[in-house]
## 1
Amino acid sequence: MAVARRTLLAAAFGSAATSVAAPALARVIGKFERSLSFESLHTGERLKTIYWANGVYLPDAARDIAQVLCDRRNQAIHPIEPGLLDLLHALTQKLDTSASLLVICGYRSPESNSAMASLNNGVVRNSLHTRGMAIDIRIPGVELTHLRDAAKSLAGGGVGYYPKSDFVHVDNGRVRSW
């Protein structure tokens, strides 16, 4: 089954490789290569990878990122939008950190999202998590308010601030904050 998922992901990432970062982010993100480091707080999986080099999104890295950011409830894997990766890279550049992004939630399957939404009115039914366009994170050594403010300053999508749960939501949907 894992081989079938990887084959499916390879096909999906072939079309995603043509995505381009928003012009506002282009000044902040790397010119020759872009890398990210993740640590899933629920599975313990870690990944440090170059996901883009010399103008091309790297399919192997995209598959690895999708694996680490899979739905922890049912292990469903979904491609992560390259624009979200670029936004996260720009965020780490802005914060001048190479620390791993501590992932609370990456991809969330529609089934998991529906179950969560029925229990928690803070979970939206049409969450960008279900499209690989959102992530909930914190970064070691970075104050949550500083992470939130840096993400908002990039104007690359939505930014949600959850101090009681100790994370910031970042997505590459429309620009907004809460």
## 2
Amino acid sequence: MDPNLAYDLSEFGHYGYDPGTGASDPDFPVQDQYTGTWAMYEPPDDDPGVGELLAKHVINAIIKPMVYLSNGETAGVTEGESVTFTPHVVTGGTPPYIYEWSTNKDNAGWTTQGSGSSWTFNTISGDAGTYAVRCVATDSLSESGEVTWDDFVVSTP
């Protein structure tokens, strides 16, 4: 990734900030120093979790698989319903990938749910609670990356 493209809009503007043009202005941070066109990155499937994931894992992006989960934007289900979680490798790693799934109900510890390119949570009576769903992606060079979907709720009917 080009470090010139990774910046925050602090009081100093961007990578090309020139103090010779005057004091910084937080209401107009780039001070007309850059001419060109900016485009906003749109994550795959318009999933806002990608931005959060990228912010946490950019350092490992070249070596380790960087993964995010999608489930149709479902925040929870009622006991007896099902939802399928699917991992998406954004970048990094060397295919093919192996996916391992686990859940953590009400912070009681991780329970292995199996492996596969997706995982369907088939809830039954007694499953009500708040879950974290974790997927660990391991590539062909044994490098791994993981992602957790926190606060997935299974409610009673």
## 3
Amino acid sequence: MVQLSVLNIFNPLEILDEKIEFPDNLFYLACSESAIEMTYYVYNMQKRIGSSHTKERWAVSGTTKKAYKQKGTGRARHGTLRASQFRGGGVTFGPLNLKRKVKVNKNLRSIAAFTALMEHINKGTLIVANDFVMQEVKTSLACKALKNIRDSLIDNSSLSDDVMKNLKDRKSINCLLIGDSSDVLSNNIMLSSRNIVGVKFIHDTYLNVYDLVRNNFLVITKSALLKIINKFKDRIIDIEEEGQVEA
């Protein structure tokens, strides 16, 4: 059983008496690295706009008249002026602005996101905050709190060399904030953090591999983490029940 300490991030990292228990059996849900890579690739492909587009000979508007007679001129025979060798003709094998239908199944997508979250727990780069309640929209307060968290992680000697190098090398804070979707009071930190370079705010319902992999550390509220844990606890129960039925 992994126990995660709950911090009050706005009162320079005050450690509260409360702890969140992360059950060991949830680690059995972890998928392979190749599944995470595939999910990351699909997420990236879905963001692709595809602005380059050319017209082939069938799409070019122009005359359908034959350029000159078939025989007797001594020149090569041509059936249309819309062929690629003529000025104003179509482009052969040019780029087409077509939507690429790449997808990954919903179950694998959620499991991959949960695995990426567990990787942050294993590396020690997941910070559990008591809440994200701010009295006013103030970018400087949010920036100061997140910088304090990053500095405390850098001072933590238990982190691996790779994690420490990533934290020190990045000029921006490079942090992902995960709030509870039902918590209206977290709007202030969402507004306060949107102008900070390298910081992104999402709700627990929008958990995805792309954001989890790209950020050096996470700050998640206690309520959001409990919702995620309970969601995947139910999956473990369903799997165990299916196993008993098959047996």
